[in-house]
Model the fold of this input.
Amino acid sequence: MNNFSLWLKCAFTGENPRKVRRKLENQLPEPDGTYGIRRKSPREIVREQQMWVGCLIFMLLSAAMLFPFAVLLHRVFPVTGWTIPVIVYIISILVLFYFLRKVKFTIWTLLGLGLVVLTITTAVNKYTYKDLYYGYRGFIYNVSNERKSLHDVFTQKPFPRYRDFLKASHFTPVVRQYSLKTATKNFTKYQKGDGWQYVQYFSIFKDINSKWQYVSDPVHRDYIAPAAESLETFCGDCDDYSVLIAACITSIGGTVRLVRTESHVYPELKIENKEDFPMVKNLIRKKLFRKEVAKKGISYHTDGYGDIWINLDYTAKYPGGKFLYNDVVSVLEIP
Done:
């Protein structure tokens, strides 16, 4: 066995190359000059199978841990294409795999404890295996999304249960029909002027906001009602309101994101063109919500790309009303 084959075998088995070499040298050769092959016992066969299964798990674990790194490299150095990130990714997998094999007892212990904790949280419906999968997939999406700054990717916490929020925010034909009727229901005088699309978004906001009644979730359950369900009652908590606003406005072309604080969720509307913001503020202040605004300010956030997002919370009686809470924990843009 040459040195490279010996190193490759030891990399997979985690054995010491010197001990393996000494073991091979101490074997007695057969008359034809080859080493004798001893029949393996059942225990040795099982151990060898376990070794290969462990190698496969460690290899997959290395690949999963480093895949975001490859995506990040491609984003940071786009001129190189995927060639360099893929090469670096493969080399990094081999290096990390070798390291994990060196500390395999610690890794197996941590994996076992992690599976136990995840199984318990799944049983009590706090953090499930699906949440782990979609959280990982969401992180990959955020790293690859050039519309999101890397600062936001690595500083903001994942949006809890974002998969359920996205599913509930999908508009159905019923939601679309309601949005079409409500978009032109209010502010008819301004439907054909500048910023007419924002007039329609605010018409939907006015209708939902004026009808909404806060009702708590069931005991020990964080229920997220689909938008179509909330249309039947206009009742629910902040999650349900945010989902309904997002579904209705996105169904007629608007862009909405959900903002989570430590104890609250609310929707924000994106101003598609930053140069339109003065015009939108003028619409709110002097035409559409003159009485509600009075001398109050317009509350909004500016993201890492300079895009402006106006508050549409149910606690505010006009677009851009005062934030209920200022501590933004995470955001979720509704596609």
Summary: The longest helix spans residues 42-76. The mean pLDDT is 82.
